[in-house]
Amino acid sequence: MLCAVGDLVEDVVVLLGGPPARGTDTTARISRHRGGSAANVTVAAAAASREKRSRFIGHVGADDLGDRLLAELAAAGVDLAVTRGGHTGSIVVLVDPDGERTMLTDRGASPDLSVVDAAWIDGATVVHIPAYSLAVQPLAGSARRIASLAHRHGVPVSVDASSVAVLEEMGVDLFRALVDEIEPEVLFANADEAALLGLSDDASPASVDLTVVKRGAGPTLLRSAAGDVLEVEPEPVDGVVDTTGAGDAYAAGFLVASLEGSSLGDAARAGHRLAAAALVRKGA
Fold first, then answer.
1. Are residues 268 and 254 in contact, defined by beta-carbon separation less than 8 angstroms?
2. Distances from the Cα of 28 to the Cα of 43, 137, 256, angstroms
């Protein structure tokens, strides 16, 4: 069972017909969805896995919004390992006509996870940690403790670089140091994140078994610690609506397929399929 550590928030998705008109009205289509990188991964993993289960680990606001979002996760087959307090976060997602998104983020109480229960990883087959969960305290310390617990119990760990803005804010050197400390079996990054982190075509952190660099419509690059390289072409996607959550869906598809015995190439293709499904709908 995949477990993911991090945020559960509400995404307020704003589909723009054109650039916002400063100082006056701009027509848009607005909808509300469950969001948060870790939550997105768990929902996609529950849908993709044979057992139809996953687990979300995090801190969620003690409010009606948090109740509703947790109920949505549970209905999707996600086990809940949560603490409660404060207010649930919201992210305004401005989506351009071409599907690219800009996020205005209020994470609310999500960074406030300060306790760790070893039972949270019971039955886990992988623990997934987005960079969002390593960027702020006390969540960052809790995520590191969960990763350590996972390794002590022989459970692999994956890390997602998540966001150029987050990496720049926390500092590239700090993120790379945390990756070296956590020693994830898999490190995910998109092309921009990989460039920022210095993950060139022939360089990966020595502490990582497999680096997966997603290149949008281009081939995904998979590079092992031994230097073996595999490129996997995604199928073309028509009618892109919203790129929100596509990377989370990819990670879920890749990890679930790998854990269920697929080859690296087939795991990458499973990730591409889930990412493609996310691209043609609103929200994650």
1. yes
2. 27, 36, 36
22's tokens: 């400063």
> Cα separation of 184 and 155, whole Å?
10
Q: What does the pLDDT profile of the chain (284 residues) look like in tens digits?
A: 999 999 999 999 898 888 888 899 888 899 999 999 999 999 999 999 988 999 999 999 999 999 999 999 999 999 999 999 999 999 998 888 877 778 899 999 999 999 999 999 999 999 999 999 999 999 999 999 999 999 999 999 999 999 999 999 999 999 999 999 999 999 999 999 999 998 865 667 778 999 999 988 789 999 988 888 999 888 766 655 556 667 899 999 999 999 999 999 999 999 988 887 765 565 56
Topology at the third CATH level for domain 2-6+37-87+108-279: UDP-N-acetylmuramoyl-L-alanine:D-glutamate ligase (3.40.1190)
Crossing angle, helix 37-48 and helix 246-259, to 10 degrees? 40
Show the tokens assigned to 91.
């992210």
Q: Which burial class, exposed, middle or buried, applies to 75 when counting CB atoms under 10 A from its CB (0-12, 13-18, 19+)?
A: exposed
What tokens appear for 170 in the block?
């926390």
CA distance 143 to 114: 9
